[in-house]
Specification:
Elements (H helix, E strand, L loop, with lengths): L13 E4 L11 E5 L21 E5 L3 E2 L5 E2 L11 H21 L7 E6 L1 H12 L4 E7 L20 E7 L7 H11 L5 E7 L7 H15 L6
Parallel strand pairs: 2-3, 2-6, 6-7, 7-8, 8-9
Antiparallel strand pairs: 1-3, 4-5
Length: about 220
Amino acid sequence: MRIDFKQLNSTLKHVALPPRGPSTSQPPLLLLLHGRGADEHDLIPITHYLDSRFFLIAVRAPLKCSYGGSTWFEILDSGLPDPKEFRSSFDALHTFIVDAQAHYPVAPGPLYVFGFSMGAMMALSYTLALPSMVRGVAAHSGYLPDEIHRPYQWNHLRGVSIFQGHGVQDPVVPIARARKTHDFLSRSDASYTYKEYEIQHQISEQSIADINAFYQGLLGPAPRT
């Protein structure tokens, strides 16, 4: 089925990709959040390894990175995001999601999210702050910030699925940060999967295969054509 659409003009620059395979007139929406210093094109190559039923939107973080590309926020010496920048990016992301769901021909209701590195931090924070907006989130090579401007809804995570993956040799985001996030999320009511890989700050064939299996488990079997 061909899906026609016009590009949305909202708070974040982005690339919108219709489903590659057979889909319904309202396919599930998967949002891609890149890491520090990248842009909306950075995660496009991995989309070929993800379920072809998704309507994909890859967004660009709203702030300029000091060494090129874009970023969601700066990290303070405390290890926490700059609160003003985080609030600005979080609010821009939320407005974009609401606009995208209203504008693009996607399924209504909670969406799916994939985040890498700083994008994983945004994905986890957004999910825990607004769990009614997210059906399933995959966070790769990131961690959950201790504090944001919106309280985390720990008592409202039932029905939300979370996949967290991390490289044990990661020199950018140490594995200890991922394990601390694991300690928190494993005690929540979310359906939670945690996996470690013998890799650095990167996405591997195995990790992206595990993430695709995670999404497919939520989407269910593909309809017969």
